[in-house]
Amino acid sequence: MKYSAALLLTLALLLGSNLGLQAQGLKSKVRESATPPIRKEKFQLYLLVGQSNMAGRGYPEAQDTVPDRHVLRLNQAGAWEIAKEPIHFDKPIAGVGPGLAFGKAMAAPDTSVVIGLIPCAVGGSGIAVWQPGAYYEATKTNPYDDAIARAKLAMQTGKLKGIIWHQGETDSNPTDSKLYAQNLTALIARFRHDLQSPAVPFVAGQLPEFQFVKPDSTGHRQVNEAAIQVNKSVAQLKKTVPNYACVTAEGTKDRGDQLHFDAASARLMGRRYAAAMLGLLKKKHR
């Protein structure tokens, strides 16, 4: 059977159009928009900040694509949608982080509330760029200013209940690690002041042990004392900063690069963040 060139062209265009519509349909299912609860107190917000291990670099697994309608995320455009991995968008390599597991664990105790995640972590960012006006060249962003702006946008429809922080890899050097306790204390106070939430709970995560031994310039493996110092600082702040807790990274594994959590470890960290946050919230309401 022969077809004219015009007919073949028409069939090709129709087929292309149908495939395009199917692709758009599939894409729309990947990210589903959502409407927050009308009552602000029922929409509990959590700010996710830090660097790559908060943003997530774990390779997604089947369970990471299962949504929970009680957990939303504020997307890059500032709109709410059903949360699913990757939660962050700091870099194209964003993967599984602690955010979604944290959100699900926070939602579990009370099904009458909805958890709103505000992802703002930026891979590679040192604590020095987490202050007003600081510019991070690697992503051409202003991490702190962007986080404040996104949090304030979210707070128009919900109530800020807590902040979780995982950072310190970039500061695991002899100079910056000595100042980490001082800088993290200032950062917590700054977040609380700028978001007009002076008592908002803050939970920080420690660095994993697989980062403690690194090759030096000659290729020999050396203990990174600076990373250990960062962890000590994160733990010590429990004595000086109110409404603060830290979580350990003990027992976690890397994804094969001796730097980032694998997906299972990221989920584990998320559950640990939630347990610590729930503990702080319980104390706050006594």
From TrEMBL:
Keyword GTP-binding: no
Protein name: Acetylxylan esterase
Signal peptide: 1-23
Domain of life from the UniProt record: Bacteria
InterPro entries (alphabetical): Carb_Esterase_6 (IPR052940), SASA (IPR005181), SGNH_hydro_sf (IPR036514)
UniProt entry keywords in alphabetical sequence: Hydrolase, Signal
SUPFAM superfamilies according to UniProt: SGNH hydrolase (SSF52266)
Domain Sialate O-acetylesterase: residue ranges: 43-278
Pfam family, one: SASA
